[in-house]
Amino acid sequence: MKKDLLQVSGLEVRFILNEGIVYALSDFSCTLYEGMTLAVIGESGCGKSVAAHAIMKILPINADIQGEIKICGRNINGLSDNEMNNVRGVDIGILFQSPDRSLNPLYRIKRQILEPIKSHNRLITKDTVKNLLRDVGFNDPGEVINKYPCQCSGGMNQRILLAEVVGLVPRILIADEPTKGLDKDRVSDVSVLLNKMKSDNRGILLITHDIILARSISDLAMIMYAGEVVEYGTCSEVLNSPSHPYTKALLMSMPENGFVPIDGMSPALTKLPVGCRFSPRCQYATGLCHEKHPNLNTGNGKGIRCHKFC
Amino acid sequence: MPEQTALLSWIIRKAIRYLISGFIVLVIVFLVPRLMPGDPVRNLVGEDVWLSPATLQALRSEMGLDLPLNEQFIHYLLDLFSLNLGYSYHLNGPVLNILLGRIPWTLLLIGTSILAGACFGVIAGALTGWNPERWWARTLTGSSLLISSIPPYILGLAFLACFSFYLHLFPIKGLYDTPDIFSIIYHLTLPVLVLTLFYASRNLLIMRGSVISERGLLYPQCARALGIPRQIILKRHVAKNALLPVLTLIALDFGFLFSGALFIEIVFSLQGMGSLIYDAILLRDIPVLTGSFLVISVFVILANLSVDLISVLIDPRVRMGRE
Amino acid sequence: MNQRENITKKIKEPVLIIAISILLCFLLWSLVPQFFTSCDDHTRYKPYLYPSFLHPLGTDDIGHDILSLVIYSARISLIIAFTAGGLSIIIGVSIGIISGFFPGIIDDILMGLTDIVLIIPKIPVIILLAAITRPDLMLLILVLGLFYWETTARVVRSRVMQVSGAGYIQSARCLGFSSGWIMIHEILPVIYPVVLPKLMLVVAGASISEASLSFLGLSDPTMNSWGKMIADAFTHGGFIRGMWWWYTPPALCIVLMILSCVRIGMIWEQTGTETAFE
After folding, report:
1. Least crowded by CB within 10 Å, which of A55, A154, B64, B81?
2. How far is it, in rounded angstroms, from Cα C77 to Cα C27?
3. Nearest residue, CB atoms, B222 vs list A102, A120, A168
4. Going from the N-terminus, what domains does chain B have, and what CATH number goes with each?
5. Which A residues 10-69 touch B at CB under 8 Å?
């Protein structure tokens, strides 16, 4: 029986701003086991990164968070920031987007990679940094370790960031768009690294737009729209034979499927429609869809939020 | 761009900048007395000095005022290089010597205040920027805003009135009663206090702003996501990065800081450059004024230069030519 | 218009209302001083009088009613501060826009010029000029205005550079609009959030400089300003006699004006957190 690494139930995130309340995330739940990869797919602004940040407890102060989160069996809701620092990085790590800005511009690469390791009192050998860099695809790590982030390209910084996060060997890795801006060779490097983590029995939460990457390494897939989960199931079920209208439309919009765009725009998170959030754009929408908000129907390891599939 | 070439071009650019600024200062000092309305000799010698027409004429040829302008300029530059800053008829001495007698006191005043103000201001600024919602942070920010909005000499006057005049805690004027270290410290306490308060509050506000905007950047959040404790993020990452713009602003401000110190000297009747300039203004002692202006400009240029050196040493982005 | 809603909300804060009222009060003093005081600023009464019912702030060494002096001085102090401030903003904005819009040699030259002017210590130059020539109001304003444009120019330039890379500027260029038209109609509206706070700061700075120069006796002796009042108090025996009602009110006015300008400038302050996601 594989251990639970991550259990999230009923996670809700609201941002209290001057202009109003932003309902960034509603009713988000997921479970991650050892060696399992869950892909979270959706448009920009659908709430996938908010969920990731909420799990790591690094959202800003004006975020109102409800729900239960357990990391490696431990309920992190009541933990103080100091206690949480022992969890962050080692139990669960996150790879941010925008690698150029995620690294401190004033420090050399070597120091930046070593710092989290030292801060968690892990062992360091002479070759720790070089080995990590080799793992992420640098053929000549010696050349890179004394450079500054401003001297490296975006792709290089992306891999350096990956090395920094992976260096702590976290049990769970949240990868937020790890292949954004990378070319094909680098994408396959990242793929290989993620697979290696999988075989080490780590859990991976892969947030991505890249459906091909998702297909290649994930076991389960979850589709999000306007702050909530609309469909989830095994990767092949969801991505090859989708049920939810949004998932279908999303897949149709891929280049290889015809590049068919979805009419309309996703709703503003401050003014969500009554009823199903996708109903204004859905071709199957009925009167019920516009009036009543559908719950997530779960069963057989699948879930779908749609009145058509009640 | 390879590191060496970028660095070299940076050095050249900065050198050009400082040389041109210095040159403009020299030109201003040269041209102003000669082109302003009135007799150039009068402008150069100062008003309110009675000189007979014969002396005036002799002076005119001695100063070379009947020569064409470009030749005068050459003489002027040569004079400067031999450290001849002119002669003050009011104070009866070469300007250079007069200045040398006053500068150390001003430097003492400014140096102490800048150091103290920098330390307090930067550290307090980092802490308030890191925890801006706490009550002590808000109080400090509010008071700094208040203090830095008060022109330094008004602050000095207020302190003088309050602590010296009414409470008789500190002496009213002068650098010392007896030339020993204790008396000097006693007399300088109040002026140093005023200046330090002023510098510290400006530094606090700037550092606080810098820390707040650094904090909002991505890499501190990334460090936090890696489990690095908040205190370490502040000390090793944010504070260091936030310090750079502060240093630059302090250097740019240096002229203003210097002027502020001059006013304090006037208010507290300290025998430094400030009161020298004040008296020279009253007496229209132009040679002393131009000499002082040159000296002040030199200091300002040096201050800017030092900050540029510091930022090139610390910030690799500057070295790469990407400011 | 989200930003406008934000600003209207911010305006309702109490400190800001106080700041705006103070400036309005000073403005009224400068426009119609006769409504606020029965005496004027040149009638002479008995000198060195203590505060009384007739002269709430007493009289100075020549016998002028101090309260009237304070009110009448508002005009000069405000004129100098706002004119010099306005002048330097105009220069700064022009240079910033041109510099940001035409990268290359023009930008380099203008920025080089800005750098150089930045280093030159302002107050000593003004002192030098004022000592050599006769102090004159116009000259003072001109010189002050010529000295504070650098930070404005820099800030405007970086904002223009941010904006001119944006899509709508490129499309305007492609559609054939001249650079001048683009600068006035597209760019100017975008930069006012950075220019207005700078304007207030520059006005505050000009206030300080004017007060400082008056303190040194370098301002126009025929014009009354708050700085001059303080200088007079200092040199004409107000200090020694402990006549705090002479030098405190003008000092208070100067400080209040600076604080109000700074506070009003803070309306357009924006703090944003860079987020790790969109």
Report:
1. B81
2. 10
3. A102
4. 102-284 (1.10.3720.10)
5. 56, 58
Domains of chain A with bracketed CATH: 4-91+170-263+296-304 (3.40.50.300), 102-169 (no CATH)
Among A residues 62-101, those touching chain B with beta carbons less than 8 Å apart: 81-82, 85-90, 93-94, 96, 98, 101
Closest C-alpha to C62, from C41, C46, C74: C46
Token duo for residue B239: 């504070």
- CB neighbours of C9 closer than 8 A, spacing ≥ 6? A18
Inspect the interface and report whether the beta carbons of C131 and B150 lie closer than 8 Å.
no
- The pLDDT score that the predictor gives to residue C272 is 43
Chain CA centroid to CA A43, Å: 12
**B115: CB partners within 8 A, 6+ apart:** none
**ipTM for the complex?**
0.79
Q: Which residue of A has its CA nearest to C4?
A: A19
Phi, psi of A28 (to 5 degrees): -100, 125
**Residue C103 touches partner B, C-beta closer than 8 Å:** no
Q: Which among B28, B154, B256 has the least Cβ separation from residue C251?
A: B154
Q: Which of A81, A104, A168 faces B237 most closely, judged by CB atoms? A: A104
CB contact under 8 A, C258 and B149: yes
**pLDDT tens readout for residues A252-301:** 888 878 888 888 888 888 888 888 888 888 888 888 888 888 888 888 88
Write down how long chain B is: 323
Tell me the C-alpha distance between A298 and B245, whole Å.
55
The answer to whether B218 touches B105, Cβ cutoff 8 Å, is no
Would you place residue C274 in the very low, low, confident or very high pLDDT band (cuts 50, 70, 90)?
Answer: very low
With beta carbons less than 8 A apart as the criterion, state whether B187 and B171 touch.
Answer: yes
Determine whether A257 is exposed, middle or buried from the number of CB atoms within 10 Å of its CB (0-12, 13-18, 19+). exposed
CB contact under 8 A, A96 and B225: yes
Backbone angles phi, psi at A247, to 5 degrees: -60, -45
Gyration radius (Cα) of chain C, Å: 22
Closest CA to A158 of A109, A90, A98, A89: A98
Q: B176 and B269 in contact (C-beta within 8 Å)?
A: no
Q: Do A97 and C276 touch (CB under 8 A)?
A: yes
Q: Which of B259, B281, B282 sits opposite C121 (nearest CB)?
A: B259
Q: Which of these, C256, C249, C218, lies nearest to C235 by C-alpha position?
A: C218
pLDDT tens-digit profile of C54-82? 777 777 777 788 888 888 888 888 888 88
Cβ–Cβ of C132/B43 closer than 8 Å? Answer: yes
Confirm or reject contact between A148 and chain B (CB < 8 A).
Answer: yes
DSSP result, B47-100: SS----HHHHHHHHHHTTTTS-HHHHHHHHHHHHHTT---EETTTTEEHHHHHH
- CA of C273 to nearest chain B CA: how many angstroms apart? 4
